[in-house]
UniProtKB/TrEMBL annotation:
Gene3D superfamilies: Ribonucleoside hydrolase-like (3.90.245.10). One of its GO terms (cellular component) is cytosol. One of its GO terms (biological process) is purine nucleoside catabolic process. This is Nucleoside hydrolase. Keywords: Glycosidase, Hydrolase. It comes from Nocardioides albidus.
Length: 320
């Protein structure tokens, strides 16, 4: 199945836990020409993330997509993982059958650079984990912003509470220095943050349709979702969850699902309580409609999002 804008050549950099799994399944069904997946630390350690990524790609019918492992820890702080959210194995401890495949390589930042050089101006980079691999790739190849088409990041919490600290969203907080490198790069980068994802948990109808689905993808998704639903039920007060990463992939594949605002931004890299916060200047006129979204220190954030269309496409990607 192709997306509404045809086939999109993308590379997904991930730390595959439960919402990453949904994102990969979504990508497979909606127009992603997935050239590779690169794996970083985050939800789980890199070896588990690679195993999970290979397994989900197999479920999605993408068993020829190469997976490359990368940064096993942040640039300037200790490793931190989220077993309490995604389970000890990262896929909800649901007893899934692991892929027999092995990663194609262990130098993910170099693979990002290699693919960008091989396909200049074509690739959309989609980062749905901490930004260490992208940060290192920028250090390896200063021309990387010229070589890729667009960048979409699931990250940040602009003007709303964080989910790992009072201010910080997990993917940015896990490696603030790498996130600042991504913000400072002169490329078109969209941050799909908690201000966009948290208002859009899965509705009871969406969950019922996944539960009732007989497609192997729906059965897989429903099994791994139980852990995620348990975690979010304690926080939302209802049995639901937020598919953060799949929203970012949806924006990458169909930018018209959203409207955007162009803003100056930076990442707080100090050692205080605001470390890992994506800070954007939201004052009227801080970046007008004619501002260059590719300038260094300028990002785009999502203002509105077509959640109904997204949910229908997510269900289709699961055969539900």
């Amino acid at each position: 199945m192709t997306g509404p804008h045809g086939v999109v050549p993308i590379l997904i950099d991930c730390d595959t836990g439960i919402d990453d799994a949904l994102a990969l399944l979504y990508a497979a069904a909606h127009g992603a020409d997935l050239r590779a997946c690169t794996v970083t630390h985050g939800n789980v350690p890199v070896p588990a993330g690679a195993r999970n990524t290979l397994t989900v790609l197999d479920v999605a019918g993408l068993d020829t997509v190469p997976v490359h492992t990368g940064a096993t820890r942040p640039l300037a702080q200790p490793l931190d993982v989220a077993h309490h959210v995604h389970g000890e194995d990262g896929l909800g401890d649901a007893g899934v059958t692991w892929s027999p495949r092995s990663p194609a390589g262990d130098l993910a930042p170099a693979e990002i650079v290699r693919l960008a050089r091989a396909h200049p101006g074509e690739l959309t980079l989609v980062a749905i984990g901490p930004l260490t691999n992208l940060g290192i790739a920028l250090l390896l190849e200063p021309r990387l912003p010229e070589l890729v088409d667009r960048v979409v990041v699931m990250g940040g919490a602009v003007g709303v509470p964080g989910n790992v600290t009072e201010y910080g969203e997990a993917n940015v907080w896990h490696d603030p220095e790498a996130a600042q490198l991504v913000v400072d790069a002169a490329w078109d980068v969209v941050f799909v943050g908690l201000e966009t994802t948290m208002p859009h948990p899965m509705s009871p109808d969406v969950l019922r349709r996944i539960e009732a689905g007989t497609d192997p993808r729906a059965r897989f998704a429903w099994a791994i979702l139980q852990c995620y639903l348990d975690f979010y039920e304690e926080r939302l007060g209802v049995r639901s969850c937020v598919p953060h990463d799949a929203l970012a992939v949806a924006v990458a594949l169909d930018p018209e699902l959203a409207t955007y605002r162009t803003v100056p931004a930076f990442v707080e890299t100090g050692r205080g309580p605001t470390r890992g916060t994506l800070v954007a200047d939201l004052r009227p006129g801080s970046a007008d409609a004619g501002a260059d979204a590719t300038a260094a220190g300028i990002i785009r954030i999502v203002e509105t999002f077509d959640i109904d269309t997204f949910h229908e496409r997510l269900l289709k990607s699961l055969g539900a």
